[in-house]
Amino acid sequence: MTAVAEQRLTSKAFLLFGGLLIWAAHFMLVYSVNAVVCARGLQDLRVLGAGLIPFTVAIATLVALAAASRLLWVGSGWLGPLRGEPHDDRASAFLRQVSIALALLSMVAIFLTALPSFVVVPCG
Amino acid sequence: MTVVGDRSEERLAERKPARRFPNEVPRPESELDELRKPWIPPRGWRIVSAVNNTYVGLAYIATGLIIFILAGVLAVLMRTQLATPQNDLIGYALYNQLFTMHGTMMMFLFAVPIVEAFAVLLMPNILGTRELPFPRLSAYAFWIYAFGSLAFFFTLFFGVAPDTGWFMYTPLSDARYSPGINADMWLLGIGFIEIAAIAGAIEIIVGFAKTRAPGMSIDRIPVFAWAMLIFALMIVFAFPALILGTILLEIERALGWPFFMAEKGGDPLLWQHLFWFFGHPEVYIIFIPAAGMVSTILPAMAATPLVGHRLVVLALITMGVISFGLWVHHMYATGLPQLSLGFFSAASMSVAIASGIQVFAWIATIASGRLKLKTPALFIVGFLIVFTMGGLTGVMVASVPFDLQVHDTYFVVAHFHYVLVGGMVLPVLAAIYYWYPTVSQKQLSERVGRWVFGLFFIGLNATFFTMHITGLMGMPRRVYTYLSVMDWDVLNLISTIGAYMMAAAIALLVLDIVRTFRFSFSDTVGNIWDAGTLEWMRTYTYGTRSIPEVDSRYPLWTRPELSDETDEGRYYLPGTLTGRREALVTSPIDARPVYVMQVPGPHWGPFLAGIATTIFFYLLTFKLVLPAVFFGVVAVALILWWVWDLDHGPVRRPAHIGGGLVLPVYTSGSVNHSWWGTVTLLLVQGAFFTCLVFSYFFLWLVNPHSWPPPGVSMPSLAWPAVAAALYAASSAAIFFAGRALARPSSGALQLLFPSALLLFAAAVGVQVYSEWQTGLRPTQHSYGAMVYLFGALQGFLGGVLLVMAGFTMARSLAGKLDAVRRVTFDNTMLLWHYATAQGLVAVGIVSLFPRALG
Predict the structure, then answer these.
(1) CA within 13 Å, CB half, B693
(2) For residue range B227-268, what is the model confidence (pLDDT) as tens digits?
(3) What own/partner pairs with CB < 8 Å and gap ≥ 24 does B399-408 have?
C-alpha cells in the first residue's frame, strides 16, 4: 500500500466508530431533551398531536437510523480498494466488515434507546 | 516447536513456504554488541532509574499484587467482623474506613494499574517491538503509583483514611459532614492514580498505532492489543470526569465554591453524574483488558484460533463506547424522570449484546479445539461461569423496578463482586499462570495451581453467592454489625469462611511465586503452552534480535521457525543505526515501516519526579500549600530534565534496515509518535472541558430563572469580544513563530513566544476581571463558581503554556530547535491552539448562554 493510500485509510479508520458515535449523539440528545423538558415542566406540550418528548425522540431516531444506514450503504464503498493497491487487501476488508457490523449494531442500540419513549410516562 | 491440535484451514493456508529474508546471515560480528550496549540496564541500586518495559512492567505487577493483598486483608477484617451478629471486634468508625479503603484500593490502585502493568510488560513483545514509544513516561507512572498507593494505604494507621465510601457521595463528603482530612485523602490522594492511568493510556494508544511489527496490519493485531487500546481510550474519556469531580469537591471543601451545596444553587446529584460517568465505564475499563487476556490465553489452551476474531474486536469497540451510556443505572433511586431511566436501561441491554458475543466466541473456541485443562484454563473456565452469573444479575439490576427493591442491599454487593472478581481477578490469575514462563526460569507448580484455583473458586462462590440471599432478605450494605433476630447469621458465617478460603488461595500463590520466581530475559521457561503470538519468541533486554515480519494472527503457528530466524538477525533492524536504543515505527493500518525511533534510556528523572509528585499531593492534603507548591515545581523541573534529551534530531542520514528499506531516524509532524502523544493528551483535556461544560448546563437546569442569580448583572459583550480577540492574537503569534523556525538566527522566535504568552495572559485576565468588576464572587452561588472555574482552567492552561514556551525557547537558544528538528515546537503549538479554542468556547458559553436561555 502506498503512503498516500495508508494516510487516507488511517483517517477513514476513525469512521470505524461512526455508527457508535451516531448512537452516542442520539442518546445524549434524547436524554438531554427529556431532562430539560421535565425540569422546565414542558411535558404537556403537544406537537402535531403527539407529546413533545415522543415526537422529538421519533424525529431524532429517524434521523439517527437514516445516518447509520447511510453509513452502512457507503460502507461497502469507502473502504474498498484504493488506487494502486491490490483488490484483496485484507486490512481494508477488515475495516469495512467491522465498520458495517458496528453500524448495524448501533442501529439496534438506537432502536432500543428510543423504545421506552413510547411506553413510559416521560416525567413520572 | 511443532504445530499441534486441530488447526483451521485458514491457518494452514497461511503457512508460508521458504522465504527471502530482509537481511542476509551471517551478520557482522560487531553488530550484536553494538545493539546490546545501549540496552544494558543499570545495576545495583541504580536499577530504580531503569525504564525498560520489562523491569517497569514487572515492578508494576508486583506492586499491584501487594495492593491486592493489602486490600484483601481489609476485606478479610470486614468479613471477620460480620462473621457473627453483634460482634464488637471492629467499631463502626474503623469499619467505615475499611470498606472505603477496600473499594478504593481495589478499584483505583489494583484493578486499573495491574492491567496497565500487564500492558507495559507484554505489549512490546506481543506487538513485536523493542520498546513502546514513551518508556520514561511509563516509569514515571509506575513510581507515582507505587509511592502514592502505599502512602494512601498507611493513612489507615493514623485514623485519617477516607471513610465515606469509595464513591464519596456529597453532601456526606462535603466540609460540613466530613470536616476532617479523611475525605481530602481520597480526593487528593487518588490524584496520582489519575495521572498514572492517563500516562499509561497515552503509552498504550501510541504504542498500538505506531510500534507494531511489520506486516501486523490492522486485521492481524492480537485481541490483547485491541483490548488494551479500547481500555486506554476509555481512560482518556472517562478519567477526566473523575478528575473534574474531585477538583470541584476539593475546591468546594477548601474554598467554599458551591458546586454541590443545594442552598447555594449547587446540586449533590452533579457529583453522582460525574462520578458514575467515570465509574460505570470504569467497570469496563477493568473488564475489557481481562477479556483481552482471555481471548489471548484461550486459543493457546484450546490449540485453535479464536473463533470470531472480527466479532470479538467489534464487541470490544461496542462495549468501549456504549458503556459510557450506562452511568445513570447507578442512580435509579435518585428520583430522575422515569423515561431517563428507561434510556439507560435500554443501553444496559444493548451492551449485553456485545458481552454475549464475546462469551459465545469463547465457548465456541473451547468447543472447536481441545482444551488443555492446565491452571490458566481452569481460571478461564471459572471466569466464564462466575462472570456469566454476574452478568445475569447485572441484567436483573439494570431493570429499574428490581433495582429499586435491592438498592443498597447485599444483593448489589454480590452482583458487582461476581462481575469484578469473576470478570477481572480470575482472568488476571489466569494471566499470571499463563505468562509467568515469559519472565521466569521456573514455572509455577501445576499441583499448587489446582489448589489455588479450587480454594479461590469455592471461596469466591461461598463468599458472594450467599450475599445474594442476605441481600434479598434485606441486609443493607455497609453495616458494621447486625442483630441475630434477622436470621442472617449462618449465611454471613459461610461468607466469612469463603473469604478465608480466598485468602488461603492467594497465600499459596504468593508462596509458589517466592519459591519459583527466577527473573530472566532470555533464559526463561519458554513457550510451554505452544502459543502462537509473538511474546513467546526469544527476547533479550533489547527485545528480539531483529524485528520479525508478521504474516498471520498467530505467527508462531504459521511459521514455527520464526523465533530462530529472528534470533539469527534475518529480519529488520538487526543492529543499531544511531548507537542508541531504537524501535521501528510502522504505519497505523498496514504496519509498513516508516522510520526508526530513537528510544530514551535509563534516567533518574522519572523516579525522582515520582517522589516529588507524591509529596506534592500529600502536602496539599494537609493544606501545606507553600511546601506543596515547592515540590510541584521540583516535579515539573525533574520532568523537564528527562524530556530535555528526548529529541535528538536527525543524527544521521536515512539508513538500510533490511529488505531494501531505507528509513530516516527522525521525523516531525503528524507522522511522529510524539505528535500522537500530544494529540492524545489533548483528547484528555477536551474530555475534561466537555465534562465542565456539561456541569455548567446541569447547574443551569437545576436553577430555573436564576442563571445568573437575582442581583447579578452580566458584563457587557465588549469584554468577551476583547478576550476572544486576545486569544486569537495569541495563537496567531504562535503561527508566525512556526514560520520563523526556518530562520532560527533571526530572533523572531524569542520575540513571538513572549508576545503570545502576554496576549494569552491578557485574554485570561480580561475573561476573569470582566466578571469580577460586576461584583460577582465565586462563593455566592454555583453560577459564580462555574464562571470563575472556566477562568481558572484557562489560567492553568496559561501556566502550562508558560512552562512549554520557556522550554521551547530554551531549546532554541541551545541550538536544539530548527525547521527540521521541531518536535518540541510542534507539541507546544498543538497545545497552544487547543488552549485558544477552549478559551473561545468558554468565553462564548459564559457570555452568551445566560443571555439566550438563563
Answers:
(1) 15
(2) 999 999 999 999 999 999 999 999 999 999 999 999 999 999
(3) B399/B345, B400/B332, B400/B338, B400/B341, B400/B342, B400/B345, B403/B329, B403/B332, B403/B333, B404/B332, B404/B333, B406/B471, B406/B472, B407/B332, B407/B333, B408/B333, B408/B476, B408/B477, B408/B478
Any residues with CB less than 8 A from the CB of B569 and at least 6 apart, and which? Answer: B23, B25, B27, B31, B32, B545, B546, B575
Enumerate the residues of chain A whose CB falls inside 8 A of the CB of residue B314. Answer: 98, 101-102, 105
Whole-number pLDDT of residue A10:
62
pLDDT at B4: 39
Q: How many CB pairs under 8 A join A and B?
A: 126
| Partner A contacted by B218 (CB < 8 A) | yes
Instruction: For residue A25, give every residue at least 6 positions away whose Cβ sits within 8 Å of its Cβ, in sequence order, or none.
Output: A64
The closest of B849, B852, B841 to B767, measured between CA atoms, is: B841
Name the 3-class secondary structure at B662.
strand
- What is the CB neighbour count within 10 angstroms for residue B404? 12
Across the interface, do B337 and A91 touch by the CB < 8 Å criterion? no
* Residues ≥6 apart with Cβ < 8 Å to B762: B726
* B221: phi then psi, degrees, rounded to nearest 5: -75, 130
Interface test mutation site (partner A, options B343, B348, B400, max chain A beta carbons within 10 A) = B343
Cα B476 versus chain centre, distance: 32
Selected for mutation to probe chain B from A112, A115, A118, A119 (highest B CB count within 10 Å) is: A112
Q: Between chains, do A121 and B219 touch, taking CB under 8 Å as contact?
A: no
Please report the DSSP string for B563-603 in residue order.
HHHHHTT-SB--S-SSSSEEEEEE-TTT--EEEEEEEP---
pLDDT grade for A5, boundaries at 50, 70 and 90:
low
Buried b (16+ CB within 10 A) or exposed e, B645-660: eebeeeeeeeeebbee
Residue B103: all three cell numbers together: 473499594
Chain A contact set for B347 (CB, 8 A): 27, 109, 112-113
For chain A, say whether B340 makes contact (Cβ under 8 Å): yes
B596 φ/ψ angles, rounded to the nearest 5 degrees: -100, 120
Helices (DSSP H) in B421-543: which residue ranges? 426-435, 446-472, 489-516
Cell of B567: 534470533
CA B814, distance to chain mean position in Å, is: 35
The CA distance from B39 to B36, in Å, is 5
Pairing, β B581-586 against β B593-599: antiparallel
3-class secondary-structure state, position A28: helix
Cα–Cα distances (Å) from B619 to B97, B101, B140, B541, B613, in that order, read 21, 20, 19, 38, 10
Question: How confident is the model at residue B345, as a pLDDT?
Answer: 85
Q: Other C-beta atoms within 10 Å of B704: how many?
A: 11
Counting other chains too, the contacts that B512-515 makes at CB distance below 8 Å and 24 or more residues apart are B512/B444, B512/B445, B512/B448, B512/B449, B512/B452, B513/B444, B515/B445
Q: Are A123 and B338 in contact (CB under 8 A)?
A: yes
For residues B226 and B601, the answer to whether their CB atoms sit within 8 Å is no
DSSP 8-state class, residue B773: T
Three-state SS string across B143-209, please? HHHHHHHHHHHHHHHHCCCCCCCCCCCCCCCCCCCCCCCHHHHHHHHCHHHHHHHHHHHHHHHHHHH
Rounded-to-integer distance, Cα B165 and Cα B412, Å? 15
- Asked if B350's CB is within 8 angstroms of A112's CB, the reply is yes
Euclidean distance between CA atoms B175 and B709, whole angstroms: 24
Predicted pLDDT of residue A80: 53
In chain B, % of residues over pLDDT 70: 98
Average pLDDT across chain A, whole number: 82
Task: With CB atoms and an 8 Å threshold, state whether B340 touches A10.
Answer: no
